[in-house]
Design goal:
This protein is mostly helical. It is built from 4 helices and no strands.
Length: 147
Amino acid sequence: MGRDRISALFNENEYVEEASFKGQDLMGKAYIPLFDYFLEEKRNGAFRIMSDSYVTNDSGTMVVHCAPAFGEEDFRLCKENGILMGGGENVPCPVDADGCFTESVSDFKGIYVKDADKMILQRLKERGRVLKHGSIVHSYPFCWRSD
């Protein structure tokens, strides 16, 4: 999490800073993904820290997840960082044409992505991977067909 955002998201007694790093020093470092789906993509450079100009210190946590099948910026960033090879024809996509998770996300296969939100959050909590739960309002492109 970016230091500039800590006070916006936590009270002073809700956290302990254990270490501090400059973002540029973290570039290229690998991280453990929240779920084990798509681990085979690690051989292509997935699950490592990247940076881009759209990540700013005025909202959110200053940390974003890239999903190249679902956003122009994510696609571009993954391609620029060598995660997507060639023209990016084989982009992993865990959602079918009806907006439901495919077999590649086995725990939630066949469930409409928005209906799975609470189940995903519960699974993350069970695994001790939720630091704080809340809603952050931010703008992002949303398809009117999926409303």
